[in-house]
Amino acid sequence: MASQEHLDKMQLRQNYRNLWHSDLMGTIQADTPYCCFALWCAPCASYLLRKRALYDDMSRYVCCAGYMPCSGRCGESKCPEFCLCTEVFLCFGNSVASTRFLLQDQFNIQTTQCDNCIIGFMLCLQQIACIFSIVAMIVGSEEIQEASQLLSCLADMVYCTVCACMQTQHKIEMDKRDGKFGPQPVMAVPPMQQMSRIDQPFPPSVGYPPQPAYGQPYGYPPPQAQQGYPAAYPPPAYPPPGYPR
Question: What is the pTM of this model?
Fold first, then answer.
């Protein structure tokens, strides 16, 4: 019954309308220092991000954010900090995924197709490395064993890199939530607009970009009102009195 609820939630996430503020490909450029921190000290980053996702209220903590069968059965209410430390060190992958699901459900965020491809590639590479390791153990061939070791090393590198980018993505999203994301555009009250006067050849450009002057400048009557000339005929060649030279 619980597994069916989780499947329904995963299906519901595909219909979310919002997107991550930064995709996985852009997290390194968006916040390089934190991405390095998440790469070299991944469990610490996972601990801090989960606590921040709960608004630093550890009374709300549930193991794996309630998305795993063990959630709520590990004595989280008695010592949530210790349980979170255990989660991020022993179940690191689940801790990162749980924080991701928590943010997605809270802000209705869907994962882009590019991010899904990156995560899917990481998971498939781990499965292939595991299969090669089993085949190498059964066959006993040194060539297959070396190939499996290289593939396992590559899978671990991709896993660590993708997890670091995911955690950086979570951090950027919470920076946006808390109003800490970079310089935000200042929504100031526009300046008071001024009406043009007769003694002004051109209207003031306050509040609007300067517009090119076509024909007669603002503040003068239309051509047909000048000295009785009809609209089809141009005004006199000489400038009228007061016209700026």
Answer: 0.69
